[in-house]
Amino acid sequence: MIEKCLFPVAGYGTRFLPATKSTAKEMLPIVNKPLLQYGVEEALAAGMNNCAFVTGRGKRAIADHFDISYELEHQISGTSKEKYLQGIRGVIDQGIFTMVRQREMKGLGHAILTGEPLIGDQAFGVLLADDLCMNQEGAGVLQQMSELYNQFRCSIVAVMEVPDDQISAYGVIAGEAMGDGLYRVDKMVEKPAAEEAPSNLAVIGRYILTPDIFDIIRTTPPGRNGEVQITDALQAQAQNGCVIAYKFKGRRFDCGSVPGFVEATNFVYENIYYDL
Ligand code: G1P
């Protein structure tokens, strides 16, 4: 059973400036709920009650969001507005929230390594809050992956097919199809040019990682954009052991881009949101 989930949340959110100048991009709301809360709820629903945030400067709102606000509680306690706090109260009660600060932005691999003291020697989830995933038919994506981990006991990455003209924005896998949307990964490349992409299967921001990944990251040199890439560390792990790619069930919205953010907002407003 996987108990911990790491949330790398130190990024600048430049594509959403000026909104992200003094606010964490993970706190931008999709309708009435911050992006990060959707991610935390997905992790909690998968049984990952221990949420580890790799934060950075200017991200204090994240720590405050997952804690009690006494003044607010006091002001609206007993009024008709109290119902609006129920959702986040439930999240705060269910989760254990820990944080570590990433002082320098050196890539996703580096962010994950920065979270090592919060994870220790156990397999863990990684959730990139920019990728909002919804599965109205059943279990959330992290839960689907956690169940696969119990079966295979190796690292798992979530993948989806993307068109050729978008593939260079992603980590891309190649591997042997095992059926049921599963692939045994033999190659991973970070943001390849379209003509060099080994397939059209792009990694999205959901991972289950076995803890040997930390030692691998420690010896992984900077790759694409001069950053330490988790994709490169997973490529090394795939050579020595096993990494499985999984075509997840559900929808994913790229909330790191303005069109994806708007699409997610419309989807949630039309299908999920309701006024209490
Ligand atoms: C990161 C990863 C990339 C992955 C993507 C998913 O890239 O490095 O491999 O495909 O997340 O959203 P980023 O979007 O942070 O540049």
Automatic annotation (TrEMBL):
| Reaction catalysis annotation | alpha-D-glucose 1-phosphate + UTP + H(+) = UDP-alpha-D-glucose + diphosphate
Q: Which domain of life is it from?
A: Bacteria
The stretch of residues making up the signal peptide is none
User: Which GO terms of the molecular function aspect are on file?
Assistant: UTP:glucose-1-phosphate uridylyltransferase activity
Query: What UniProt keywords are attached to this protein's entry?
Result: Nucleotidyltransferase, Transferase
* Gene3D superfamilies assigned: Spore Coat Polysaccharide Biosynthesis Protein SpsA, Chain A (3.90.550.10)
Q: Does the keyword Nucleotide-binding apply?
A: no
Domain Nucleotidyl transferase: from-to ranges = 10-269
What EC number(s) is this enzyme filed under? 2.7.7.9
Q: Kind of enzyme, top EC level?
A: transferase
Q: What does this protein do?
A: May play a role in stationary phase survival.
Q: Which family does it belong to?
A: Belongs to the UDPGP type 2 family.
Full protein name: UTP--glucose-1-phosphate uridylyltransferase
Q: What is the lineage of its organism?
A: Bacteria, Pseudomonadati, Pseudomonadota, Gammaproteobacteria, Cellvibrionales
